[in-house]
Amino acid sequence: MGKKTKKAPDSNTIAVNRKARHEYHIEETIEAGLVLAGWEVKSLRAGKCQLTDTYILIKDEEAWLLGSHITPLNTASTHVIADPTRTRKLLLHKKEIARLLGKINQKGFTCVPLSLYWKGNKVKCKLALVKGKQLHDKRAADKDKDWQRQKSRILREQNK
């Protein structure tokens, strides 16, 4: 008898900022488009992207993605000088930018990217309006996560 292997479901996710969920309380999420060069799209298709220490800057009524790292492929075109950490423009409506700017100007709020993903043939960025967690909040969240993990193990063992 042949061994059955499960095929992983096709995921549209390119990169996830896991640190953001640990460091911040997420208040609201927004979807934004991303302006990319051709070599960046090819690198994203290969999964060569990192969102750690990335943040959103709003300047002159435009939103910018700072600190993201898209590693250029070796096979990228030779006539283009690839800058892996360049500032990339986010595509948002003026009303969304104004609302974000109003919230960010409040004390304690900032805007960070949560993930990059494919929507059709376009790259989208999931932004979050966040408020920083205190150390005791992080500890409580870790404690809850550990308890949920233990609870699921106990239930799994009892159902065997």
TrEMBL record:
Domain of life, per lineage: Bacteria
Q: Which InterPro entries match?
A: SmpB (IPR023620), SsrA-bd_prot (IPR000037), SsrA-bd_prot_CS (IPR020081)
Q: Where is this region: Disordered?
A: 140-160
Under Gene Ontology molecular function, one entry of this record is:
RNA binding
**GO cellular-component term (any):** cytosol
Record's PROSITE patterns?
Answer: SSRP (PS01317)
Signal peptide start-end: none
What's in the keyword line of the UniProt record? Cytoplasm, RNA-binding
Subcellular compartments: Cytoplasm
Instruction: Identify the HAMAP family for this entry.
Output: SmpB
Primary role: Required for rescue of stalled ribosomes mediated by trans-translation. Binds to transfer-messenger RNA (tmRNA), required for stable association of tmRNA with ribosomes. tmRNA and SmpB together mimic tRNA shape, replacing the anticodon stem-loop with SmpB. tmRNA is encoded by the ssrA gene; the 2 termini fold to resemble tRNA(Ala) and it encodes a 'tag peptide', a short internal open reading frame. During trans-translation Ala-aminoacylated tmRNA acts like a tRNA, entering the A-site of stalled ribosomes, displacing the stalled mRNA.
What family classification does the UniProt entry report for this protein?
A: Belongs to the SmpB family.
Q: What is this protein called?
A: SsrA-binding protein
**Which organism was this protein described from?**
Marinospirillum celere
Q: Which gene encodes it?
A: smpB
